[in-house]
Automatic annotation (TrEMBL):
Organism: Phocicoccus schoeneichii
Protein encoded by which gene: appA
Record has ATP-binding as a keyword: no
Pfam families assigned: SBP_bac_5 (PF00496)
Protein name from the UniProt record: Oligopeptide-binding protein AppA
Highest taxon of source: Bacteria
């Protein structure tokens, strides 16, 4: 599997469920679905085009051009975005998917992963679990080097935990049970200990982690997936690492390509790393540049880029017959949602302060009415031609064995109006908009991201849908908000946001506590109840090693989230990706396949 598909799982896996911040508009694993035959893609495209709707299941997942790469040539990658990438280029510190995409081309995971999203023994580091002793032994199974030539040691893996758990670390990781279950981790994080007592380095290749208890999420993305170049940051205080030159200007990794130059927010030039541990990389280098959504299709057609990442699915019908391109697709581990601000983040306690009684959107009946007002089937068909479709549960079909089709409020504007009326929301002054139950003006500030041709009409569609049931919803700051600013505002609980349209990329483990746990900083709705706490704890307990027990717990959790509605899932998604026919061995399959790893990708001259 290529870096693209592998990192799609792993750059999210490190936060258990998620976590990448995704735009609305992290193990190597095998194809989750039925293996497609080698039918001509153009024939399938033509058949679907006549219907005006598409399905990811009708696409191939691997290019037809396979075989040994030449070792020369440069792959031209276009990352579709209307805003610059932030440039925090280290796994421990990044937040958004653009940065994660960039990092994934020069720094790879130390673990591999199978089709069921379980860590395997095919990566740089292997592991052995001792259930009786509650220990995991991590072993550096191969000799590898950092891009500056320094050998990788097991201490580099341990350093990830020491940095993320450090009291001065101000990033978003370290709150899930892959960290907190380690003995002594919480004491270290609180500044009460100088080291993590549950981590013991035996030698340069071996470390033993002792856990308070073992949880099923550990082997499904719970182990942190990346090494940290401890030597490279020597002399840099943890609080300064995210902004340091080592992170932003001259990052290093262990992947098959190393950073040659960075144009801040715009481009990264990579060159072959001759000492890559798996073998010689298949090309001289990779050039990655950010390309606006309005220009990406033209860049593909002209051959300016070989691969277009984050290609806008709404554009696909217009360019599906482009010559010289293989169109690949797969289900995406992501969903879009409408989030409601129900509290705020308590930085002193490092947890959610859930206070719905004080928040404008605290009334469940108001949220329920807004759900009934949205026709997400129509949104998927109209804006995405079937490549996105109505969402129901917060556990997506990407986790096929865990996803449940729970009953959700159906599109019914008349019912929505009745719910509002019954809850005391009435149009007192005759302006067409309801007042709140106290008779006060109700204006709901809605934040949505800019980017692509669909962003504005989609936001306007939701606003109009809510207007039709009498709700006065306006755009926060009067306009759409660019990606980085949007998540900065949402994360800081900006008072200009009552509701927002966001998106999450889910990780390998089904555990949703990284998004909806009380201690999760990514819990942007700021939702926390005892019942939610209890279910999330049970879902990753030792009892949950019983798969049927765990499924039952997460079924209950999915139903709870529909009842409570801290967020409304709107769309599941597939992604499409155009790949120039000269590219060799590129794949979007989920599953470990060494033949299509990044170092095996090549280009025909």
């Amino acid at each position: 599997m290529t870096k693209s598909a592998w990192s799609r799982i792993l750059f999210a896996a490190m936060l258990s469920l998620v976590l990448i911040l995704a735009a609305c508009g992290g193990g190597d694993s095998k194809d989750e679905g039925e293996k497609k035959d080698d039918k001509d893609t153009s024939d399938k495209t033509e058949e679907k085009s006549t219907e005006g709707q598409f399905s990811y299941e009708d696409f191939d997942q691997t290019v037809a051009n396979t075989g040994d790469p030449s070792g020369t040539g440069t792959l031209k990658v276009g990352y579709t975005s209307d805003t610059p990438f932030e440039g925090t280029l280290n796994w421990a510190f990044y937040q958004g998917s653009p940065d994660a995409t960039m990092i994934g081309y020069f720094d790879e995971a130390v673990f591999s992963m199978d089709a069921d999203f379980q860590y395997t023994q095919d990566g740089l580091i292997t592991y052995e679990v001792d259930e009786d002793a509650k220990t995991v032994t991590f072993t550096l199974a191969h000799d590898a080097k950092w891009h500056d030539g320094t050998p990788v040691t097991i201490e580099d893996y341990v350093a990830s935990y020491e940095v993320i758990g450090h009291p001065d670390y101000d990033g978003v990781r370290g709150s899930d049970e892959g960290f907190t279950l380690i003995e002594g981790y919480e004491e270290y994080q609180a500044g009460e200990a100088e080291s993590i007592s549950g981590i013991e380095v035996k030698d340069d290749k071996t470390a033993v982690f002792t856990y308070k208890e073992l949880a099923p999420s550990l082997t499904a993305g719970g182990f942190w997936a990346y090494a940290f170049p401890k030597h490279y940051y020597e002399g840099v205080e943890v609080k300064d690492m995210a902004a340091s030159d080592q992170t932003r200007k001259n990052p290093i990794g262990i992947g098959p390509y190393k950073v040659k130059s960075i144009t801040s927010g715009e481009a990264i030039v990579l060159e072959k790393f001759e000492d890559y541990w798996r073998g010689e990389p298949g090309m001289d280098g990779i050039d990655i540049k950010v390309i606006p959504s309005s220009s990406i299709a033209d860049a593909v057609e002209k051959g300016d880029v070989d691969v277009a990442l984050s290609f806008p699915t709404d554009q696909y019908p217009d360019v599906s017959e482009m010559e010289g391109v293989n169109w690949l697709a797969n289900i995406d581990g992501a969903y879009t949602y409408i989030g409601f601000k129900l509290g705020e983040w308590d930085a002193d306690k490092n947890e959610v302060n859930y206070k719905p009684e004080e928040m404008k959107m605290g009334d469940k009946e108001l949220r329920r009415a807004m759900w009934h007002a949205m026709d997400n089937d129509a949104v998927g068909n109209k804006f995405y031609h079937g490549l996105r479709w109505k969402a129901t549960s917060l556990i997506t079909p990407y986790h096929e064995n865990w996803h449940t089709e729970v009953e959700v409020p159906e599109y019914d504007p008349e019912k929505a109006k009745q719910i509002l009326a019954d809850a005391g929301y009435e149009d007192v002054d005759g302006d067409g908009f309801v007042e709140d139950p106290d008779g006060e003006k109700l204006e709901i500030k809605f934040a949505s991201m800019s980017g692509g041709d669909t962003a504005e009409p989609l936001a306007n569609y939701y606003i109009q849908s809510w207007k039709e049931i009498g709700l006065n919803v306006v755009k926060s700051n009067g306009r759409l908000i660019e990606f980085n600013t949007f998540y900065d505002m949402v994360g800081k609980d900006d008072p200009e946001i009552d509701i927002y349209q966001g998106a999450w990329g889910v990780g390998s483990d089904v555990d949703p506590s990284g998004l909806y746990g009380r201690k999760a900083s990514f819990n942007y709705p700021r939702y926390a109840t005892e019942e939610n706490d209890d279910l999330l704890k049970k879902g990753n307990s030792t009892d949950a090693f019983d798969i049927e027990y765990r499924k039952d717990i997460y079924n209950q959790w999915q139903e709870l989230m529909v009842e409570e509605m801290p967020v409304i899932p709107t769309l599941y998604r597939a992604y499409v990706i155009p790949v120039n026919e000269r590219v060799k061995n590129w794949s979007e399959e989920y599953g470990f396949n060494e033949d299509t790893l990044l170092y095996r990708v090549g280009v025909d001259e």
